[in-house]
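Researcher: Let's walk through a ligand-bound prediction step by step. First, I give you the protein sequence. Second, the SMILES string for flavin-adenine dinucleotide. Third, you return the three-dimensional complex as structure tokens. Ready?
Model: Ready.
Researcher: Here are steps one and two:
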Amino acid sequence: MDFTIHPDLEALRRRVAGFVAEHIMPREADVIAEDQRREYNTLLSLQQRARDEGLWTPHLPVEFGGLGQGVMGMCVLFREMGRSPVGARVFNCDAPDQGNMDLLLTSASPTMREKWLRPLCEGRITSAFCMTEPAPGAGADPSNLATAARQEGNEWVINGHKWYSTGGQDASFLIVMARTSDDPKTGASMFIVNRHAPGVEFIRNIPTMGPEILAHREAEFRFHGVRVGEEAVLGRIGEGFSLAQKRLVPARLTHCMRWLGLASRALELCKSYISTRTSFGKLLAQHQSIQQMIAKNALAIHSGNLMTFHCAWMLEQGMAREARPYSSMAKLHVARTLCDVLDDAIQMHGGLGYSDDMPFGLWYRHARSARIADGPDEVHVMLIAREFLMKELRLLW
Ligand SMILES: Cc1cc2nc3c(=O)[nH]c(=O)nc-3n(C[C@H](O)[C@H](O)[C@H](O)COP(=O)(O)OP(=O)(O)OC[C@H]3O[C@@H](n4cnc5c(N)ncnc54)[C@H](O)[C@@H]3O)c2cc1C
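Model: Step three, the predicted complex:
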């Protein structure tokens, strides 16, 4: 087993890390403040700089303006970008666009790729993914899918109600999952829907625990007889559930990469504070209970790194089916790790940690959603246990 990062990728990693430290971190508060006023000057100038420096969308194939780095490359680079909550957006690698790019690359027709994927890759538009519905519709269990599409001549007519469509308000197109038959396996299909098509009603951005930052605004939509043509179907009719799996496995892994970056930055901030703050005659870093928190979190981040890399490697070997339980393990572990690291970071910083003079509160309010979005913890627990008990999940691979 060789853990060496190829020298070309390592050089790229250093450049991305340098860009994040030098250009993004000093401006991240500006990007967030401007975004609250719906102004994007700083973000746009950072994005232009990323393009100029050849660091734009490194995960994409060269033909779509990327560097063809693949999943292992993403692992190395996205962790660096994730050190800032606005980092991934600067390189056009943020959710949900990045997962949607992957889906369109593999499953959209050439016409739809030119119409929607190319401007998405160029950062001229954004997108959203609409699967989840308010109860009793699709949630942790996608088979509750209630939004339906029925065929009328050459068109599909979509009716339904969605929420938690991240970035939906500003998106130019939506990927909408809808029921096209009652078959439990092949009963769902995905459609590309123009966000401004007649019948698409944007209801609101749901007020959430995490403040709105860039695409991370959770839209609620109703679809009233929205008409799309055959060319809007992603893959084939009936492939919705399998495409969702295809999108979700790598997409949840890229979340892990970004979260690992943020978790490691939080732990580094702890190191600065506990190495200078004295309490009861010694530095905080010299107290055993503080060391325990540091070691526990370092261990969790390192385990998360290994799980994420292993699963990315499986995807790169074409083992998408086999990778599923490992992606659940990585997602479950890294989402919890991020929340734990941030909670401990607040604790180690005392009153300062609880204040908004430090970023932990803001980061934590977002991080908490990691244990719910892309499948709640309990569903990943169920999947891992099912694979172990009923199939042959290999723990000593
Ligand atoms: C910030 C954020 C962004 C999101 N972005 C998107 C997006 O862009 N597109 C999109 O389509 N969706 C998105 N989602 C929705 C997300 O994927 C769903 O919230 C998630 O799948 C859970 O579905 P639900 O909210 O309907 O919870 P429910 O299905 O109502 O489940 C509620 C709770 O029940 C428990 N539970 C469920 N099933 C089981 C089980 N089998 N065993 C034990 N306990 C169980 C869990 O604790 C779960 O949290 C986002 C969610 C959040 C919070």
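Researcher: And what stands out?
Model: The chain has a mean pLDDT of 96. The radius of gyration is 21 Å.
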